[in-house]
Amino acid sequence: MMSELEKIPKENPFRVPEGYFEELTGRIMKAASNKPRVKAVEKKLFRLRPWMTAAAGLAIITALSITFILVSPGKDQTDIYRDLSFNGTVEEIFSGMDLSAIEEEVAGIISTTGFIGVENSDIIEYLMMQNISILDIYEYF
């Protein structure tokens, strides 16, 4: 078997005509001198790259501005929380509140809905263990 390389002929099949390179320069000069020279019209160059760079920069600045406006809290939102801090004790916090009204409201909610997973009888038993009067207990149940 012959390998693929052995099938390729050893000699170059292409030939250059005799004296080709000696006459080449003369033929090129003759062809170039025969054509009349025409002055090229000056064109104003419109370069796209600076405009694309400016547009990309503007798009980035716009996106960052919109993100900053949407993410950062406004002045109105921060003013709402200004009065919420209190450095007092628990007694001072609850001193102005009517706790009995809150207890009655919570007891009303508990008595109608009950605790999830806790029976009323279990609650009553626990309250009795805490030495709470049965009359007080039934007042809420």
Measured distance between first and last alpha carbons: 107 Å
Helix percent reads 55-70%
- Name the average pLDDT: 78
The dominant shape is: elongated
Pick out the low-confidence regions: none
User: What would you call the structural class?
Assistant: mainly alpha
Strand count, sense and barrel status of the largest sheet are: none
Write down how many β-strands occur, each being a DSSP E stretch of 2 or more residues: 0
The rounded Rg comes to: 49 Å
Q: N-to-C SSE series?
A: HHHHHHHH
Number of helices: 8
Kindly estimate the percentage of residues that lie in beta strands according to DSSP.
under 5%
Q: Which features characterize this protein?
A:
mainly alpha, elongated, 141 residues, 0% strand
